[in-house]
Amino acid sequence: RDRVSTQSTWGQFHTVRTRQPFSQGSVFWEIVILSAKRQGDLYNLYIGVTTRNFPKDQFLGWTPGQWSYHSKYGDAVWKTKVNPFSEQYGKGDTIGVLLMCGASRLCFYKNGRKLGEAFNNLSAGDLYPAVSLQDVGDCVHISQRAVP
């Protein structure tokens, strides 16, 4: 299975994506949050998908072609639209992402429990797993898993 880890080395948002896109069928991956700096009582991470070209210095979900689940408030974020979705997450949590390309849907899981469908409006074509980190030392591990 594919695995990758990434760690923030500078103190502002940056987004990274995998090299492998998906455009057909269903695929599932998990992101383990190994370390993250709290901002008060909350963490500030974004997990989701992006198209090939994206701004690396902005958080995931704020530009067209990106969809994300925000840790701080549990919101679903797409093109600057922020909608209540689920619960907060942070250090020590594992976030599962189920991408259903043919159905244009994106579902999330937290620590093995399905949270539900956050988006049903994904664009056709290549989509890449992605994450936005903010603080120095924020670190996640991404690995592809069997579809639940």
Task: Tell me the layout of helices and strands.
Blueprint: E1 3-7, E2 14-17, E3 26-35, E4 46-50, E5 66-70, E6 75-78, E7 81-84, E8 94-100, E9 105-110, E10 113-119, E11 128-133, E12 139-145
Antiparallel strand pairs: 1-12, 2-11, 3-8, 3-12, 4-5, 4-11, 5-6, 6-7, 8-9, 9-10
Topology order in helix (H) and strand (E) letters: EEEEEEEEEEEE
Low-confidence stretches: none
How are strands sequenced across the largest beta sheet? 1-12-3-8-9-10
Task: Identify the overall geometry.
Answer: globular
Gap between N and C termini, in Å? Answer: 15 Å
Q: How many separate helices?
A: 0
Spatial extent as radius of gyration: 14 Å
* Overall helicity: under 10%
Number of strands: 12
What is the SS-derived class? mainly beta
Averaged pLDDT: 88
Please describe the biggest sheet, giving its number of strands, its sense, and whether it closes into a barrel: 6 strands, antiparallel
- In terms of DSSP E residues, the strand content is over 45%
List keywords for this structure.
single chain; mainly beta; 148 residues; six-stranded antiparallel sheet
Characterize the structure shown.
With 148 residues, this protein is mainly beta. The chain is 0% helix and 47% strand. A six-stranded antiparallel sheet has the order 1-12-3-8-9-10, with no helix packed on it. Strands 2-11-4-5-6-7 form a six-stranded antiparallel sheet, with no helix packed on it. The chain is globular and about 40 Å long. It starts with a strand and ends with a strand.
Summed up:
The protein is mainly beta and 148 residues long. The protein contains no helices and twelve strands.
